[in-house]
User: Fold DUF983 domain-containing protein from Hymenobacter lucidus.
Amino acid sequence: MFKYSALSLTKFDDMHEACPECGQHYEPEVGFYWGAMYVSYGFSVGIVVLVGVLLYYLAHDPPVWVYVSTVAVTVLLLTPLLFRYARAVMLYFFGGIDFQATR
Ligand SMILES: [Zn+2]
Assistant:
């Protein structure tokens, strides 16, 4: 779906217009990926909860600034992955594309 590696800090969001293999168009309608923001938000909430629970048990309930900074750094570092997976999930569930093994 994406032109460059997720590690490319400035181009991780560049998408192909269509699939290079089968030609499937990647944007079913204008503004389709606005919905991916909600998917990304869900991923972020999951990360906040996971990091919070891990810190609570592994670091024995550290001060609040440790929670806030750890969650912020984690989400920032994972931004390219969250962005990409949110779009892929959005396209998979709401793109209306049927998989055809013969194509
Ligand atoms: Zn394809």
